[in-house]
Amino acid sequence: MLRGEGVERLGDVAVLDLDRRRRTGIPEVVLAGPKHAGEVAEIAGALLERTGSACVSRMRARHRRAVEALAADRGARLLAYGRRSCRLLASGAADPPLQGLVGLLAAGTSDLEPLAEARMVCEAAGCATTTALDVGVAGLERLFAPLGAMLAAGADALVVAAGMDGALASVVAGLAGLPVIGLPVSTGYGAGGRGRAALLSMLQGCAPGLVVVNVDNGVGAGAAAALVARRRAGGPFIG
After folding, report:
1. What is the CATH number of domain 101-232?
2. Residue 79 pLDDT level (bands cut at 50, 70, 90)
3. Is the distance from CB of 101 to CB of 156 less than 8 angstroms?
4. Are the beta carbons of 88 and 115 closer than 8 angstroms?
5. Cα distances (Å, whole numbers) of residue 63 to 130, 132, 199
6. DSSP 204
7. Of 27, 66, 68, 74, which is closest to residue 49 (Cα–Cα)?
8. CA–CA separation, 40 and 66 (whole Å)
9. Which of 12, 63, 120, 122 would staple 127 via disulfide (CB 3.0–4.6 Å)?
10. Residue 17: phi, psi to the nearest 5?
11. pLDDT digits (tens, 9 = 90+) for 186-230
12. Hey, where are the domains in the chain?
């Protein structure tokens, strides 16, 4: 049932969706990039106070400083995910119970930030994660051991982050009998740069079970993977 509960106006800055995690299974994420540092801190602080946690994505240096100051002032735990994403947990707040396992794979070191964003969302949604880095198709032998370990551990869904040609997502989907979320990354350059070639390659892939989010959309990839993983693990669809 759709309801309008859990909505709270925060001055002229934001309208907080406090009920989002219960309604959808995925908590609200504060997109820092286009906002002033003070706005990010105000919104994150309000979420922290009302819900016990806050997720922030696409931070720049000024946002990170503001969020770190907020955490220190509130006595909150700050969990960093790469350089640009973080979670805040209020003092005494517990992580949600873990349901499901998401495997995260990055083709190259340059693909880590969007993948870290996806990991943040998965863990905030109550999924365990395991990560393999620098396993792209330029050295395919690097992929087999970590992918095999993820499958042996009972992974319920996979997120594959890749820039350049984006080929890793199709390869993984052809090897693993799991839902694979392709996360094209804007690390490529030249004619197909800024993730265009990676996005089109993943969309055009012939391996079954591969679905694709937009370029650099780690939040979307993490949310999709978490919902699939929790459902496969027998958890509730909503939080």
Report:
1. 3.40.50.1970
2. very high
3. yes
4. no
5. 27, 28, 29
6. T
7. 74
8. 8
9. 122
10. -100, 80
11. 998 999 999 999 999 999 999 999 999 999 999 999 999 999 999
12. 7-89, 101-232
Judge whether 177 and 209 are in contact, CB under 8 Å: yes
Measure the CA–CA gap between 218 and 114, rounded to whole angstroms.
5
Look up residue 64 and give its amino acid: R
Chain position carrying tokens 């640009």: 84
Residue 195, number of CB atoms within 10 A of its CB: 24
Q: State pTM to two decimals.
A: 0.93
Q: Which amino acid does the sequence have at 231?
A: R
Kindly state the tokens that stand for 131.
Answer: 């990560």
The tokens describing 165, both together, are: 């040609």
> Which pair of tokens denotes residue 62?
């000024």
How far is residue 99 CA from its own chain's centroid?
16
Q: Quick one: tokens of 54?
A: 């806050």
Residue type, 16: L
In this structure, are residues 223 and 190 in contact, taking their beta carbons and an 8 Å threshold? no
Q: Does domain 7-89 have CATH number 3.20.20?
A: no
Q: By C-alpha distance, which of 117, 122, 89 is closest to 103?
A: 122
Q: What angle do CA 45, 115, 84 make, to 5 degrees?
A: 40
- CB-based contact 88:28 (threshold 8 Å): no
